[in-house]
Design goal:
By secondary structure, the protein is of the alpha+beta class. It has a domain at 19-114. It is 20% helix and 23% strand. It has helices at 19-35, 51-55, 107-113, and strands at 40-45, 59-66, 69-76, 98-100, 103-105, 129-130, 133-134. Strand 6 (129-130) and strand 7 form a beta hairpin. It is globular. The termini are far apart.
Amino acid sequence: MTIGFVINPGSGPVEGATAEQAAVNIKQFVADLAVRGLNVVEVCRTPEADYDREYNDGRFAFDLTFDDGSLPVQMPGIPVEQVRWLGPDQDIWQFPRLYVDDSSWVWFFALNACHDADDDTPEPSNPGTVAGVPKREWKVED
């Protein structure tokens, strides 16, 4: 008899997370969506839906409203550089997952989950770009 299990890296609790840092992170996430041509018209903090509230796991709820609908996002509340996985130059095992519409994704793929990504959506093969745009052109400044 063989027993197996699947490991979903980054889906566990996020230690030391805060709602304030999650709010900073969601701004960067929205900026990254804009680079991909996805217009977020409103971001609403929804603390009653926090995974952190129910599971004490360090993720905080936001509703993102787009031109054609809305999606709930559970954003980890640790520094953005510890959440924002963009490609193979980073160790994916060290990054917590976001939840988009209750499905877990690392940052790069969470962006895809916010729209109907087609086969033209680039894989994170070049760590210096996302969707062909150099990182320096899409970083949000405080």
